[in-house]
Design brief:
Layout (H helix, E strand, L loop, with lengths): L5 H10 L6 E5 L5 H12 L5 E5 L3 H14 L6 E4 L5 H10 L1 E5 L1 H9 L10 E4 L10 H12 L4 E6 L11 H9 L4 E4 L4 H7 L5 E7 L3 H24 L17 H10 L8 H22 L2 H16 L17 H12 L2 E3 L19 H11 L3 H12 L9 E3 L5 H23 L8 E8 L2 H13 L11 H22 L24 H17 L16 H24 L9 H24 L8 E5 L4 H9 L1 E6 L4 H13 L6 E7 L3 H25 L13 H7 L18 E5 L7 H7 L3 E5 L6 E2 L4 E7 H10 L1 H12 L2 E7 L11 H4 L20 H4 L4 H11 L4 E5 L2 H11 L8 H6 L14 H9 L8 H7 L3 H5 L3 H8 L1 H11 L1 H8 L1
Parallel strand pairs: 1-6, 1-7, 2-4, 2-5, 3-4, 5-6, 8-14, 11-12, 11-13, 13-14, 15-16, 18-19, 19-20
Antiparallel strand pairs: 9-10, 15-17, 17-18
Helix pairs in contact: 2-3, 5-6, 6-26, 9-11, 9-13, 10-11, 13-20, 14-19, 18-20, 22-23, 37-38
């Protein structure tokens, strides 16, 4: 069980009172979940009903487990899901206790009175930073306060950065939640500071420098980001993009910030601006992948970027390519990333005439070969000979694997060695084991992929190998997979009739021939000197970094180089024995081996008798679950493989929660790179956010919450019409209401309709989304939903059903707030209006143009929809706020809809809904003279089809419709026959 620290107790003393409602903003990593669970434990009782909102499934499970550990087991935290029926939820609410429910389920239950709102003891809301005027949580709070003034509401947040954007964000959140008290606890709060600085962990900061290739790539990526960002600002001068800089580009929220700035004019910006926004996200990922991916995975990702930038999914040339790939910095990124993996030498010359050899001054390999001939570096030549002897047979002869490892891998190996020596020293000095804590080593990484990579390295690490090559076996295995992937890609792209290129490794040499002879290597280098000096761009992997081709040559060089590499590898693999290829059978065997080894490893880990000192647990950073992991494992040695501000605070809380335990933390960070800058920038951003919140709280004007039911008398007066008995008769005493389909509560419109004064009635509707009056049915579509409905044909069926059952069917096309009010972008709808001239004759059309082959636009589909359904009206709304106003105008002086009738319309069990009736035939029947909405059902019961009606005589038609309507219908159906008879 976790121990509460002094600042935890002071926070609980302030917010535990059920008579008050509070908002708590706490710095991440200080134990927010611990406070929430303790608060729920205080309130746990069968006589109280406590609701937990906004919790993710993972958080629900973790909170339930922690409450179980704290003693809240009978019944504990119950979770309400979509599989639970209405009757079960009603019984659960009546029994009381702690209940976690989603916002969508709770809002429907509150509107249908399935939950006794006046009996709710309190509501606990997580992630309060997400609450806005359009959110369901604000809707829930309004319904809650309408019927329950005594219940409490506690809101919590640990994301202060999200509450500092916009005008008075803290005030807006408190207004929507109807709160008047807020408590802010940053890391520099006096209580937190005094508590955590009492006992400090032994922190060893390890600053690792990047390798020279990684430094060059990092500098080039930052340079590309600077160029892309400046180009984005230059092309959009009207937008406020001053706050967007390189420092903010390190964070994942940067993409959302840029898109939010461009959303109002997104339909006006060209494809180039959209490409720049996407490039910024790609470059930000590249910075992260450079420090977390191995060299081969990073190089493979770059190759996929080049392939996706040069061609579309259909294989055609891409029109709008990324501008950053045309820069010299991009050439540095691709060339050095390849050099981190391997170096390619030129193939053997096919000419038999000896040529004069010229050594390029910049050719380092040639100078090294010349030094070896003269015996200047004998030790190096012997090392090279050993490396040649170790060369794998599946590696092409013109490829020299480099396989650069991440610098932190060696640092991690040294740290684990130091921890092992420290454990041995402690065992030798003391006879008694430590009373608190275990010798398990906990290694924390930034992502699950990094955890997998670190686990592979530790599992295959060669402790006797020199630094930089301890993970050689793992990298060689990854290189083999990479070569297979590269060769398969090249083989798939080649036509079947085309033979593989013949400029790769020698084919006459069998792979079993030993390649450890130094003279053979020197001869091969001597023969290729002339070719390498003549064509340096093809073997750019061996060129120095300072060589920077022109912009146009950079991209061409990339594509040619990658294609040559793929062709070389494909040709080499095509001429090797099948046992060297990583075939599909070998893949299956490899997979079975890996699975069996993993199963054995899991068995030993979970069921074997392993000492804690022999366990190294590698785990990725998560949320407050890390606090529980630290409490369960109680490690005395923690390695932070990548920096994380939240976990630093968790270690501080963990250290002070265990007074008698010595904790040593190894804090590893790459120096002078984005990792260090991101950590410091995140620390600064959080501090500035808390300072803004404290300043806003000091000058904040708290809103006065009025009872919205006080103005009900005015609403009743508006229902009185002086045209009916001089105003003595009321039109309607029923509150203005709208029937809303259950599925529509995923949108923000029901909340706004309730805020505008309408009574929202949830129901499961078969026809329509909103029923405003007995005659008006509305089908609401957002832009993505409209396009999807057109493509699937669902909109045609929906309009058909609305036209059959309602007099005024309406299609509402609603746009999002603060976004472009347009169906398509300007670039998509642009046309050429230039006058034709005779200077350049028009080309002869050889077939359909691109515009002819393009699918019909949304506008053309809307026109066809209107032609098919003339009674359907289309309403355009710029935002949900505009939709609420439109609905109120449509309902003015109209009768209120009947929920039971609205639910019955279109339902299968309703006999009057026309189950099994041909909707098209019914629509045709309604168009005949004499057939009205009142007698159409009667006619359908009398005749089975339109053909049967046409075959009746005049007397039979008059018996069904009446004399005059029957004559009109009969004359209309037989008008053509009478003309034929007269002729």
């Amino acid at each position: 069980m976790t121990i509460l620290l002094p600042f935890h107790k002071s926070i609980l003393e302030e917010i535990h009172d059920p008579a008050t409602s509070d908002l708590l903003i706490l710095a991440r990593g200080l134990g927010l979940r611990r406070i929430i669970c303790t608060l729920m434990q205080i309130y746990d009782s069968k006589q109280s009903l406590i609701l937990l909102l906004n919790a993710s499934p993972e958080e629900e499970t973790a909170i339930g487990d922690e409450l179980g550990i704290m003693g809240c087991r009978r019944p504990g935290l119950r979770i309400v899901g979509y599989e639970m029926g209405k009757r079960d939820r009603q019984d659960l609410y009546k029994n009381g206790g702690l209940i976690s429910v989603t916002s969508r389920i709770l809002i429907v239950d509150m509107l249908q009175s399935d939950i006794p709102t006046e009996l709710i003891t309190g509501i606990i809301i997580l992630h309060a930073e997400k609450v806005t005027a359009l959110s369901l949580e604000a809707f829930i709070v309004r319904l809650y306060r309408e019927k329950n003034k005594a219940g409490f509401l506690k809101a919590f947040s640990d994301q202060p950065e999200h509450i500092t954007s916009g005008m008075s964000p803290l005030k807006n959140i408190m207004k929507e939640l109807q709160l008047r008290r807020v408590h802010i606890y940053p890391r520099f709060h006096e209580d937190v500071k005094n508590t955590l600085e009492t006992r400090k962990a032994d922190v060893i900061e390890l600053y690792q420098h990047l390798t020279e290739p990684m430094e060059a790539i990092h500098h080039a990526i930052v340079q590309c980001m600077t160029v892309t960002l400046s180009e984005l600002k230059r092309s959009n001068k009207t937008l406020e993009l001053d706050d967007i800089n390189i420092e903010s580009a390190y964070f994942r929220s940067f993409d959302a910030v840029v898109r939010r700035q461009l959303d109002p004019v997104w339909h006006k910006v060209g494809p180039r601006t959209k490409q720049l926004v996407g490039d910024l996200a790609t470059l930000r990922r590249l910075l992260t992948y450079l420090l977390s991916y191995d060299a081969l995975a990073f190089h493979a990702y770059l190759e996929t970027l080049v392939a996706s930038n040069t061609a579309t999914a259909t294989g055609a040339a891409k029109q709008n390519q990324s501008p950053w790939m045309l820069t010299d910095a991009a050439n540095i990124i691709f060339s050095i990333a390849k050099r981190r993996c391997y170096v390619l030498t030129a193939a053997k010359s096919t000419a038999s005439v000896p040529e004069k050899q010229v050594i390029d001054v910049d050719d380092e390999d040639a100078w090294a070969a010349l030094d070896e001939v003269h015996g200047i570096t004998g030790s190096n030549s012997s090392d090279d000979g050993k490396q040649k002897e170790k060369k794998k047979p599946w590696v092409p002869d013109n490829m020299s694997p480099v396989l650069e490892e991440l610098p932190k891998w060696d640092l991690l190996a040294d740290v684990l060695q130091e921890i092992e020596e420290e454990l041995m020293r402690q065992e030798a000095l003391s006879t008694r084991p430590p009373t608190r804590g275990t010798n398990t080593v906990l290694v924390m990484t930034s992502s699950p992929r990094s955890s997998t990579l670190v686990s592979e390295f530790l599992g295959e690490m060669d402790g006797n190998a020199p630094k930089g090559s301890r993970g050689r076996s793992m990298m060689e295995r990854k290189l083999r997979r990479y070569l297979y992937w590269k060769g398969e890609n090249a083989r798939q792209k080649q036509p079947k009739h085309q033979q593989p290129p013949q400029f790769s490794a020698p084919q006459q040499q069998p792979p079993s021939q030993p390649e450890g002879n130094i003279s053979e290597a020197l001869k091969k280098k001597d023969k290729t000197r002339q070719e390498r000096s003549a064509n340096r761009r093809r073997v750019r992997g061996g060129a120095p970094v300072t060589v920077a081709p022109s912009k146009s040559a950079a991209v061409v060089d990339l594509t040619v180089d990658s294609r040559d590499d793929a062709d070389d590898i494909a040709a080499f693999l095509a001429h090797q024995p099948s046992d060297l290829l990583v075939s599909s059978d070998a893949d299956i065997l490899l997979l079975e081996t890996l699975l069996s080894s993993e199963a054995e490893m899991d068995y030993d880990t979970h069921y074997g008798l392993l000492a804690p000192s022999q366990m190294v647990i590698v785990r990725a950073y998560t949320d407050d679950t890390d606090d529980q992991i630290l409490a369960e494992l109680q490690p005395r040695f923690i390695v932070m493989f990548e920096p994380n501000l939240d976990f630093v605070r968790r270690i501080e809380v963990y250290r002070n929660s265990n007074p008698g335990m010595g904790v040593r933390v190894y804090f590893m960070v790459y120096q002078l790179c984005c990792e260090e800058h991101k950590y410091l920038a995140g620390l600064r951003r959080e501090k500035e956010s808390f300072e803004k919140l404290i300043k806003e709280r000091g000058s904040m004007l708290l809103p006065i919450f009025e009872d919205k039911h006080a103005g009900r008398s005015d609403a009743v007066i508006k229902t009185i019409s002086t045209r009916l008995a001089g105003g003595r008769k009321e039109l309607s005493t029923v509150a203005s209401q709208v029937i809303v389909d259950m599925r529509e509560f995923r949108s923000t419109l029901p909340s706004l309709l309730h805020a505008s004064g309408l009574l929202v009635i949830p129901a499961t509707l078969t026809v329509g989304d909103y029923i405003l009056t007995p005659d008006i049915c509305v089908e609401r579509k957002s832009i993505p939903d409209l396009v999807a409905s057109f493509n699937s044909g669902r909109l045609y069926t929906q309009c058909e059903l609305m036209s059959v059952h309602y007099k005024q069917p309406i299609l509402l096309i609603e746009f999002e707030e603060n976004k472009a009010f347009s169906l398509e972008t300007v670039a998509e709808s642009a046309k050429s209006y230039a006058k034709p001239t005779n200077k350049y004759p028009a080309k002869k059309s050889t077939g359909p143009t691109d515009s002819d082959r393009a699918p019909p636009s949304v506008q053309s589909k809307l026109v066809l929809l209107i032609l098919h359904f003339p009674r359907v009206r289309i309403i355009w709304s710029s935002s949900p706020y505009g939709t609420a106003d439109i609905f109120n105008d449509l309902k003015a002086n109209a009768f209120e809809p009947d929920p039971n009738r609205a639910i019955a319309i279109g339902a299968e069990e309703d006999s009057e809904a026309g189950a099994g009736i041909n909707a098209a035939a019914e629509e045709l029947l309604r168009c005949l003279p004499g057939v009205t909405a009142k007698n159409v059902k009667y006619v359908m019961n009398k005749v089975g089809s339109i053909r049967e009606l046409c075959e009746l005589d005049r007397k039979a038609v008059q018996d069904i419709l009446g004399v005059e309507p029957g004559n009109a219908c009969y004359d209309f159906m037989h008008r053509g026959e009478r003309k034929k008879g007269t002729v």
